[in-house]
Amino acid sequence: MRACYDTLPTYSDHVLVDGSFDPLHSGHIAYLNAAAALSKGPLLCAVASDAQIRAKGREPLLPQETRLAVMEALGIVSVVYAKDRPTEQVIERLCPRAYVKGADWEDRLPPEQVSACGRVGTSIRFVRHGNSDHAADWLREWWRKQSDRDLATMERWIAAHPSTPPDRYDAEYFSRPQLIYPYQLDQRRIAEGARPDRIKDLWPDVTILDVGCGPGCLLALLRERGLKAWGVEPSHIAPCAESIAPYIYRGYLTDCPIRFDVVISREVLEHLTIPELLAMVPQLFACASRAVYITTRFHPAPSSPFSVIDQPDVDPTHQTLLTHQLLRALCVMAGGKRRQDWEQHLDFQGFGCTLAYEVAR
Fold it and tell me: What percent of the chain has pLDDT over 70?
């Protein structure tokens, strides 16, 4: 059965155990069996909250509700309690006959718990259950092995993916039939929606560079709003309107002689190889004096921060979909300070593909 704090049982012969059980493993079962052998009555199990796990420096693998359901299903445990306060308060509320911990807690039990047991006459028992491993240690080892596998995959990925020539991005590419919104200004005005206005909200009086601007549709929308915006496009045959052509530099970002307040890179990084991407991120920050705003597609189901995948079914030139963590790490190492308020303002549609960083100088 499950109990809340106000309805915890007060059996005089019950035994209390506690832990996070995240996830439950064989060492936990041995611990619970050893505690049950000491009990003359019900075995009560206090399951740590998600906040209590985070306070110890890690994110819960399973939410408390799931861990409670698992513990309830065990025949060993009589009563399950969703712990929502310090253990010493639970001890004083219950006055258990014994408080049982694994032998690895001997000589390091928090003094608050020791004092609480003394006040209510609860004996403290340490049991050896043949397995002192912690679930967190198992998870760290699993994460390390998975990360090593993903790094090996990335190494093979780098060897297998050649660069896409810039002139692959021609008029045919920007008008291909699978596009929901073709790269024509009227169509992109619909696709962008409020985004140009939101860019102006954040940076109303700055110089802006749109890197990999393609036909220059976003650039045109920004200039319509009076923003001092320019673009750089490595493809010499990417189409653009005559009215916007004077504001587009045909070449690479490294050849651009001017620094700008804000640098934008939208739907560009996923087209690069990993070496190109690793070079591009520092270039974006080197060219910006105030902010860098990036949108890109991310790995949809990463197994570690180093997972990488492509997306030829969406676009045959999508070569590198990284994880949020890895790309964010690159931004921080390039001198960026994350601005979540900017990201929320720009990602008003909730796509989750927006990164916005203040440039730290």
Answer: 95
